Give the backbone structure.
Amino acid sequence: MMMLIDCSRCRTPLQLPHGAPCIRCAICGAITHVAPAPPVEPNRGAVQPPPGWGPPPPPVHGRKRAVVCGISYRHSRYELKGCINDVKCMRHLLMTRFNFPDDSIIMLNEEQTDPYKIPTKHNIGMAMYWLVQGCQPGDSLVFHYSGHGAQQRNYNGDEVDGFDETLCPLDFETQGMIVDDDINTALVRPLPRGVKLHAFIDACHSGTALDLPYLCRMNRSGQYVWEDHRPPSGVWKGTSGGEAISFSGCDDDQTSADTSVSSRSTLQFTAAVSMFYSLNYEVSLFRGLLADHLFMQFFCFVFV
């Protein structure tokens, strides 16, 4: 039994024999090591909330749960017009098209009167913890983020391009950004076998915001191209047996944009997702629709 991997240096496809820990490329001579997936541990889904954070998240409801987060950064130089509409559209879509219960959706935005539903770094972290808390086989989870994304210099050697991708909570200027390593630890690593997570990240530099080990692109001719994004250190970035699928508004080195749909501001990626599903198109056409759109967003920044 053979497994197909790419050479770590020249990206030439290589056939790795089953059980082999590494393989030498006949083209460039580089040795590519393969980090085995860790065994599934039944208790790894029991994640703990970040220390010192409170109050406790609301009780978990149902087999379908979602966190939708939209940040407009009102009255700041980073202001976005469409993000609050984004999360309202996504919440409506989940409830009407996919039968998510209202009490199983946490919506974070600046219009909320509950202080723990304002999209601060603290509250987003607690919402992530709530989403995966106690998940069981058959559960369907959704995480949607609409707001600013950025990059910062990576210092632990687990990024191919040398940068971590980040999400910018409302208070990022004082509390810092949410780094892709932490998103992976909170949302991806705890997922046990039989649990599926769909993430929609509508932000700049969001291509690998969940730090997943593999990335799939679709080109304009409809062909799928898989890329190996496992860190050179061999640290496992996958799940504990579950399935995590992330759709991003743009690549790590690209930016996203506001648009106007039905006289309301939204970000283009979220608008495409909502309109697509509301019109009952076949899911198999979804990636082709996204591949036909280009995105541009202002007030983007890189932290080094």
